[in-house]
Structures are given as C-alpha cells and as structure tokens.
Write a structure and sequence with these properties.
The chain is α+β, with helices and mostly antiparallel strands and about 300 residues long. It contains 12 helices and 7 strands.
Length: about 300
C-alpha cells in the first residue's frame, strides 16, 4: 500500500464523524460535504507523522473550515432566516436532496439546527464541539482564537440561547405543547372537525405579506375560516419539515426546508383553545424572534 492509499484509508475511517461535525456546524449536507472535502485536501498536503490523535486533529481541521464558512456566510449576509417556498424533492448536483437533509435534520433535531443558525460562528463552534462531541475547551480555544476560559463562556452563552432563558414554567409549556401538537396533527391529517375542536370560535389568524401567496387574505377570523386556511396551507407546504420550538417564551412551530428557517407560526392559547395565530415569514421579523429548543 503506497502512502496515498494509506492516507485515504485513514481519512475514510474518520469521514462519518467529520461529516457529523460539519453538518451540525453548517446545517446543510452539501456544505458539510464541501467542508469534509476541504479537510481531506488539507490532510493530504500535511505532514501528520507526528500526530498522535488523528481523529482529534481532523476534527480540528474540519472545525476550522466550518468556522471560515460560517464567517463568510455572515459577512455576505446570506439569509439563513430567508423567506422562500419549500423545496421540491429533487436531487441536487451534490447528490443530496431536501428529503435527505430533512431526515438528517430530524435526527439532529430540526429546532436545534434552527436555533444554532442564530448563534455567532464562534459560539456555534464552541457549543457543537463541546456539548455534542465532548471536545475539551483547551482544544477549542486555539480554533476560535480565545483562551480556554473564553471558549467555555462562548459555549455557555450558546447553551443559554439553545435552551432558552428558563423563565417559562415547564407546566405551562407542556399545556401549550399539547394544544399545538393537536393543531398540527389535525392539520396534517386533514381532520376539519379536530381543527375546530382546538380553535377558539373567535380565533384570529394573521400572516405577514411574505407568508401568504399573492392576493390571499392576510387575516382570517372565526374557527371555520381559520381551519380552512390551515388545511389549504398544509397542502401547499406538504414537503416542508416542521418542528416545535420555544418562540418568544411560548410554544410555536418553525418551518425549515433544508434546515434553514423559512417561517414561524406563533400561538396564543386561552382556556385550552387557540385564540390567535401569527404566521411570520419576513426575514427581518424572523431575525427579531427569540428561539429556543423545546425540551422533551
């Protein structure tokens, strides 16, 4: 076996781990594969004969690549919170599909990926490496150019954002979750009567201009009108992955094709019924929301 084959075999032994790290850092299978390929190029050009822990060394390399990609994304002001229609299930040039991304996102936690998108690049890296892959802060520190103590603080700030401030009683969130889950189940199954059962008779549904098709009403009033609108919207966005999340302290729904936030649905619940629904898709409004993962 020549040196090139040996290097390739050693890299392949770590590929699945590196892809997992990159996916959690970037939220996209295509970008994760790009990051892993760049890590391979750097590995193949480096002298690693003195590296005792090759897996750790490669994790550091792919983390640096991902950090550069995240910073580039921020500097170009890409729209991780962009408004766009759910993608159809078609193959991409990189061989992945939105359906594949949705499956991986579900295994990671779609809401978690959405919340990670709101973090600063260094915070995201510190949280992902430490909390998800148990990388010590001593190893994270040089990647982000901080001291180990500062790296620990980055992860701590990220953890608070991911978990939320914890100011809402878990019992309240549990009750809200039950109502919202019943709404989603009825919507997905097309059960009109079940929708009526969870909606207040005088419920109001409001949507910003980016959240509804051109010419469609932005406000609906009454349980019958809102239920019909919910079923019609569910048909249009059937392929879009959704997840429950804490939105501004209450249980809401995030819609995130390809792991990128597309819209948010918030609810106001009174006496066990949904009294108000707001559908938000305007990027500026989405960026103002405080999102956190809803604990199981």
């Amino acid at each position: 076996m020549d040196e090139g084959d040996w290097l390739a075999r050693r890299f392949e032994e770590n590929r699945s781990h590196l892809r997992a790290v990159a996916y959690r850092m970037l939220g996209s299978l295509g970008e994760a594969d790009d990051a892993v390929q760049e890590a391979w190029l750097r590995f193949s050009r480096s002298d690693t004969s003195g590296v005792a822990n090759l897996g750790g060394w490669l994790t550091t390399v792919v983390a640096r690549v991902c950090l550069d990609m995240l910073r580039s994304r921020k500097s170009r002001r890409e729209e991780p919170l962009g408004a766009h229609e759910p993608e159809s299930i078609v193959s991409r040039e990189d061989g992945t599909s939105p359906e594949q991304e949705a499956l991986v996102a579900d295994s990671v936690g779609l809401a978690l990926l959405v919340v990670l998108e709101t973090l600063a690049p260094a915070e995201r890296l510190a949280f992902v490496l430490h909390d998800m892959f148990a990388v010590p802060f001593d190893e994270i520190a040089p990647i982000v150019g901080r001291s180990p103590t500062a790296a620990r603080q980055l992860a701590s700030r990220a953890r608070r954002r991911v978990r939320g401030a914890g100011t809402v009683a878990s019992a309240d969130l549990t009750r809200q979750r039950e109502v919202v889950e019943a709404f989603l189940a009825a919507t997905r199954s097309g059960d009109f009567d079940a929708l009526l059962a969870v909606l207040d008779p005088d419920v109001v549904r409001r949507a910003d201009a980016a959240a509804v098709p051109r010419g469609a009403p932005r406000e609906l009033r009454g349980a019958h009108a809102v239920a019909k609108g919910a079923l019609a919207g569910s048909q249009r966005a059937r392929s879009a992955p959704v997840a429950l999340a804490v939105v501004n302290g209450s249980v809401g729904v995030v819609v995130a094709p390809g792991g990128r936030l597309s819209r948010v649905i918030t609810f106001k619940i009174r006496s066990g019924k949904i009294a108000e629904i707001d559908v938000l898709a305007d990027p500026a409004r989405l960026r103002q929301l405080h999102l956190a993962v809803l604990a199981h």
